[in-house]
Amino acid sequence: MRGPRPGPAGAARRLARMRVLFAGTPEAALPTLDALLDSHHEVVGVLTRADARQGRGRTLTPSPVARRAREAGLELRTPATLKDPATREWIGSLDADVAVVVAYGRIVPPDLLGVPAHGWLNLHFSLLPAWRGAAPVQRAIIAGEEITGACVFQLEEGLDTGPILGRVTETIGPRDTSGDLLERLARAGAPLVLKVLEDVAARTTAPEPQDEALATLAPMLSSADGEIRWADPAQSIDRRIRGVSPAPGAHTTLEAKRLRLGPVALVPEVTDLLPGQVRATKHEVLVGTGGCAVRLGRVAPAGRSWMEAEAWARGARLGAGAVLGQDQGEAR
C-alpha cells in the first residue's frame, strides 16, 4: 500500500542541490567526500594539506583526500594558508553554497567564514562541547569515556565552539584503539553530513548552542603522550596504549632501547609483579603495573617490525630481573 505522495515542500527538500566546497586531509575525511560525490550535491572544489614527506625515503606523498580528489577529477588546492590571496580568490570564484570541513588541519580566517552562502560546516569526532581540538578520539579513550560520537557544527572563530546542527553517538568498546573508533565515527559521520545539508537547504536546522561550562580540550598528541609509566594503574596503561594507537604510538624502553607497544590485556589475578617488572614464559609476557599485571600483545623493538611479545622475549633472552621503562629518558 502506497503512502501519501510528498507535497511540493517535500519534493524541494529531496531535490535540493548544494554546491559544496570540501576541505579535508586524512583517511577519516574520505567517507564524507565519497558520500558527497555519490549524492545529488556537486563538489565544486577541494582543499587539502600539501604533499608531505613520508617513510624512510622521505618521498613526497599526497594526502588521502588529494588522491581521491584527483581520481574524481575535482578542482584541488593545497595552500599552506587560507590567507593566500590566490586561494581566497579561488574560493570566492566557486560560488559555493556551503563548505564542508573534515579534519582539514588549517584555520579558516574569520573573513572567509561567510563566503559560502551557508558558511562552513565542520564534522568533528566528539560530542561537543567535549574534546574540542585536534585529538578528540584519542583523548576520549585515554580518559576512559564509554560513549562518544560525532557532531556537525557551524564553524566560527573560536576553537570548535560553533552551534551544533546534528550529532550521532557511538559506544567506545573495551578493546577499541583510536584507529578503530575513528574509522567507525568517520563512517557514521558521512550520512550525518548529508542529513545536515538537507536540513540547511530546507531551512529546517535547529542550531544548538554549546554549553561552555561542559567544554573539555583535546590538544594534539606528541610522542611523549605515548610513553608508558608502569607505576600507573593497569586500566590507565591499557587506555593510554589504545588511545595512542596507531599514532603517535605507545612505547617503553629496555636497556636504553625503545620498544613500541601494541594493545595489552589486563591480568587481574597477577598482582605480585613490581611496576615494569617482566615475567616471560613460552606462552605470554606479563609486565607489572601500579595495580595488576598486563599481558603484552604485539611489540616492535627499535628498528624492527611488529611481532608477538613471546617471540620478542625469546629473542631478547630476558633475564629474571628485566624491568621495562627504567631508562626511558635515554631511549633512542
Report on this model:
This protein is α+β, with helices and mostly antiparallel strands. The protein is 25% helix and 22% strand. It contains 8 helices and 17 strands. The strands form 4 sheets. A 7-stranded mixed β-sheet has the order 5-2-1-6-7-8-9. A 4-stranded antiparallel β-sheet has the order 10-11-16-17. The protein has a 4-stranded antiparallel β-sheet with strand order 12-15-14-13. A hairpin with a 4-residue loop joins strand 13 and strand 14. Helix 2 packs parallel to helix 6 (178-201) and helix 5 packs antiparallel against helix 7. The chain starts with 7 loop residues before the first helix and ends in a 16-residue tail after the last helix.
Determine the structural class based on helices, strands and strand pairing. Answer: alpha+beta
Main pleated-sheet profile? 7 strands, mixed
Strand order of the largest sheet: 5-2-1-6-7-8-9
Chain-averaged pLDDT: 93
Strand content: 15-25%
Q: Estimate the global geometry from the Cα principal axes.
A: elongated
From the N-terminal CA to the C-terminal CA, the straight-line distance is 70 Å
Return residue spans where pLDDT drops below 50 for at least 5 consecutive residues.
Answer: 1-13
Radius of gyration: 24 Å
Number of extended strands: 17
- Roughly how much helix do the residues carry, as a percent range? 25-40%
The number of distinct helices, counting runs of at least 4 residues, comes to 8
Series of secondary-structure elements, N-terminal to C-terminal: HEHEEEHEHEEHEEHHEEEEEEEEH
Protein name: Methionyl-tRNA formyltransferase
Binding site for (6S)-5,6,7,8-tetrahydrofolate: 126-129
Domain Formyl transferase N-terminal: 18-196
Family: Belongs to the Fmt family.
